[in-house]
């Protein structure tokens, strides 16, 4: 069971670029479609006027010719179809017929025009669902020329014109969307740069943000962020300086008081006096340990975790383990392959503080009858395992906090794991705590993956 706190899952946040692109695409598409629809309506009206003009001109030009021809024909002769010289069987959209005053068809242009057209024999335009008809008369309304245009032809012409306008729109909309995306992306580049600069700020990186690439609208925000970073940096520097100075100032008098107490304890013979002296010695040792942890915490807050050049961390680990083995306080098992090496761009001092706290935590809180195992793997994983009861997930989360321990009776200052996590973050490492330990039913394991 891992001791890492579960992170709250947050859905994808809406992007300004995505939102602008969607709105612009929708507006562009709607405007193009409205423009195409308006154009189609206007074009249909104009087409109607053009077709009506063609009907009227055809009828007026045809009328003198028909009158001259009719005057030379026998009135009792059957209706005559005027065939096209180009294609006699043509079914053109424009048809016409010549009628007398009674409505009898004298001439017609197509076979379908042999029957009288439904329009009245009065000059002007007339329309039904099938035809638009223009009527003109001569010789005291005794000769009537009617020219008809198919409504299907008109509707198809308007439809083809509308499609001719709509098809380019369908092709232009994606081009406009791509152009809008490129423009938005280029315009929001300073905003993205500003966002990335802010996201990189933490306790170890509080440098001011470069305001040069920011547009005028973001300059006040950038200046406010820099002022806030300056105040935060000053506060953190003051806190680190106070912690470091306090720890340094406390170490010497605490060490002196502890030495005097131990000397006094060696000379005391009375049981009550020795018991009190032992309590004073224990308190001074706890105070010395706390001052040491505060000094380590101040160094961790100062950002000493990383370096520019990689170094092999195995000799540092060997030295720390050997120091604990020489102290003889607890049995320590060191499992390290001979050929393993850990070249990392990590501060040796920070790495030593982390390993020392991991081993110290294991020796202090583990079962006295079980050894502490320090293992190194070739992938850069360092694990420290000790025997201990299984901790609950709530306890694993709690002990990661500063000055927090598994219980009130647990020894220690509650700063070791916080120091490890802070330095591990600076070393770009991952720190995990497991209870029970790997491949065990109990125990506690601290694991550092560099």
UniProtKB/TrEMBL annotation:
The UniProt entry, under Gene3D superfamilies, shows:
1.10.287.130, Histidine kinase-like ATPase, C-terminal domain
* Membrane spanning residue stretches: 20-43, 161-184
Enzyme Commission number(s) of this protein: 2.7.13.3
Q: Which reaction does it catalyse?
A: ATP + protein L-histidine = ADP + protein N-phospho-L-histidine
Gene Ontology molecular function: any one: phosphorelay sensor kinase activity
- Keyword annotations: ATP-binding, Kinase, Membrane, Nucleotide-binding, Phosphoprotein, Transferase, Transmembrane, Transmembrane helix, Two-component regulatory system
Domain Histidine kinase, by residue range, is 245-450
Tell me if Mitochondrion is a UniProt keyword of this record.
Answer: no
The molecule here is called histidine kinase
Q: Which organism is it from?
A: Allorhizobium taibaishanense
């Amino acid at each position: 069971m891992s001791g890492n706190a579960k992170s709250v899952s947050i859905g994808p946040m809406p992007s300004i670029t995505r939102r602008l692109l969607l709105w612009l695409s929708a507006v562009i598409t709607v405007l193009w479609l409205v423009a195409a629809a308006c154009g189609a309506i206007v074009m249909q009206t104009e087409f109607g006027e053009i077709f009506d003009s063609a009907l009227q001109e055809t009828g007026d030009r045809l009328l003198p010719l028909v009158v001259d021809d009719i005057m030379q024909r026998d009135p009792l002769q059957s209706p005559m179809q005027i065939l096209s010289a180009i294609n006699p069987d043509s079914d053109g959209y424009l048809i016409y017929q010549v009628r007398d005053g009674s409505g009898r068809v004298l001439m017609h242009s197509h076979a379908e025009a042999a029957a009288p057209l439904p329009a009245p024999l009065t000059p002007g335009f007339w329309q039904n669902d099938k035809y638009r008809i223009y009527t003109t008369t001569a010789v005291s309304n005794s000769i009537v020329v009617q020219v008809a245009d198919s409504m299907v032809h008109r509707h198809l012409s308007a439809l083809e014109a509308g499609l001719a306008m709509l098809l380019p729109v369908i092709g232009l909309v994606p081009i406009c969307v791509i152009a809008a995306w490129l423009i938005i992306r280029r315009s929001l580049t300073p905003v993205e740069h500003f966002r990335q600069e802010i996201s990189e700020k933490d306790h170890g990186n509080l440098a001011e943000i470069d305001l040069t690439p920011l547009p005028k609208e973001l300059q006040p925000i950038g200046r406010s962020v820099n002022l806030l970073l300056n105040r935060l940096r000053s506060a953190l520097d003051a806190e680190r300086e106070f912690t470091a100075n306090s720890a340094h100032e406390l170490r010497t008098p605490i060490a002196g008081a502890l030495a005097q107490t131990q000397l006094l304890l060696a000379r005391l013979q009375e049981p009550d006096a020795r018991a009190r002296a032992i309590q004073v010695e224990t308190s001074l040792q706890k105070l010395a340990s706390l001052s040491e942890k505060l000094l380590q915490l101040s160094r961790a807050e100062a950002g000493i975790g990383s370096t520019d050049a990689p170094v092999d961390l195995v000799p540092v680990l060997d030295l720390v383990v050997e120091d604990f083995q020489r102290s003889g306080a607890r049995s320590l098992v060191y499992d390290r392959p001979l050929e393993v090496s850990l070249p990392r761009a990590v501060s040796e001092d920070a790495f030593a503080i982390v390993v020392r706290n991991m081993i110290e935590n294991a020796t202090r809180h583990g079962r006295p009858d079980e050894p502490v195992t320090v293992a190194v793997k070739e992938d850069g994983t360092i694990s420290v395992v000790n025997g201990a009861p299984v901790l609950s997930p709530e306890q694993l989360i709690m002990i990661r906090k500063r000055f927090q321990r598994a219980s009130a009776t647990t020894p220690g200052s509650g700063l070791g794991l916080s120091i490890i996590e802070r330095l591990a973050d600076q070393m770009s490492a991952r720190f995990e705590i497991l209870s029970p330990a790997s491949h065990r039913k109990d125990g506690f394991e601290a694991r550092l993956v560099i």
